[in-house]
Design a protein that fits this description.
Elements lengths: L10 H13 L2 E2 H12 L3 H14 L2 E6 L2 E6 L3 H16 L19 H15 L1
Antiparallel strand pairs: 1-3, 2-3
Helix pairs in contact: 1-2, 2-3, 4-5
Length: about 130
């Protein structure tokens, strides 16, 4: 996965990325099955969103045994660090990022990922 974040994802795109980060490479149908209860999207909406995400560089498409599968092209901790910094600056008008301890109990991060996020946010403070 690339560490560079080609584009900041929308909330809809984040739903897909979270699914890919949690479960790895999946077909559009598998992604749809997981995100549909939360989003209420039709399969065609999910498929269109994934195609646009591929165009933006957020996901990569691979053909495996004749089936297209998608995986996240952006690294979770790096992207979340960027989003947190952006939120802290633009929304909260903070000169420094939010403390990483605010995210310690997040179900999105493993312990290792939370520690990596903390290091990234601390680097920005220095």
């Amino acid at each position: 996965m690339s560490k560079a974040n080609p584009a900041q994802p929308s909330q809809s795109e984040l739903a897909v990325l979270k699914q890919l980060w949690a479960s790895g490479a999946q077909s559009a149908r598998e992604i749809h099955t997981k995100v549909e209860p939360e989003t209420g999207w039709s399969y065609s909406t999910t498929r269109t969103l994934i195609t646009r995400m591929a165009d933006k560089g957020l996901v990569a498409r691979k053909d495996v045994h004749g089936l297209s599968v998608f995986e996240a092209s952006v690294e979770k901790v790096s992207l979340m660090s960027d989003l947190i910094r952006d939120f802290a600056s633009k929304v909260l008008e903070l000169d420094q990022p939010l403390p990483a301890t605010a995210f310690a109990s997040s179900r999105l991060f493993t312990q290792e990922e939370a520690e990596a996020l903390s290091r990234l946010l601390e680097e920005d403070e220095q």
